């Protein structure tokens, strides 16, 4: 079972810890993030022990960090700048790797370039920066080929088996966005695909802030929290079969009210069958046998984010051709 990387805000700075979910033993990470202002950056994603950060206003990726070694790589500035919304506006980001090439990482950024895409909340361009063996971390390149231009949630995505997944939406004017499936991107193939949502979930009727993506038992997972007191958890058993979704859990939320003010995200299924959740204010385990939650000792008054974490002792210096961009 993997550990957890947990970050939170302490006096406007990042505080990173590694937690063993079995015994809650905690150790601090000597991360360069501790010198960054918490409110200036957003964590795009984590994979294989690395973190990707974007600046918080436009979510433009700026750093790849290795917290285990205290290193960070500054990403290049792309050709497309944020002068105004009609000259290119970044709409979504992703960070991942293919398990068959574990020392090659790719940062993906999606943006739209005309008013019609701005109105529809859809991207029409995509670029990649490759970090690692055989890649050029000094530049961005446009992805070749044609693909659909879906509306996606730019900040909610996961990495699973070499593919990035974003939630997709359709707009219900004037401002409401409704869940309408998923979009995936293959890290190695560099191509987009549409992914159907569970048909029983009644796609097109769920608000964007009430549906999340996760990974449980190695399966793509959809978490529906549209009910005030319950959450439903769906697992895709076979990604090769469109309708292989199974509702594995319906969970009554009996957590204290302070843990219900943020998104509740399942992190992993533990060896004893309990589900470990991040509540945004701490960690909690759920026992599906008796339906009880147990709030762990990890609690905070500021927002908390947790992801599965595996230590990575490979230096980012090997992935950087320009030593001046290393920190």
UniProtKB/TrEMBL annotation:
* InterPro entries hit by this protein: F-box-assoc_dom_typ3, F-box-assoc_interact_dom
| Highest taxon of source | Eukaryota
Q: Which residues form the F-box associated beta-propeller type domain?
A: 39-278
Give the protein name, as stated in the record. Answer: F-box protein
